[in-house]
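Tokenised fold entry reproduced for absentees:

. . .
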Amino acid sequence: MIGAVTAIEGSGVGSRLVVQARHGGEVLIPFVEGMVAVHLGARTITVNAPDGLLDLNVTRKQKF
């Protein structure tokens, strides 16, 4: 689990999820088909992030 989605920035192409990481800080994840899948019934989002994406917005202490 990365964390909780706190916002969606943008609309259409270029949208991104703002996630409050469980280890602290925020992670910005592009909201694009193939990387993000929304499961409404389960109220979850699955992220298939490329290597290094989740580490772009975090400090050394917050590695995933």
In short: The mean pLDDT is 84.
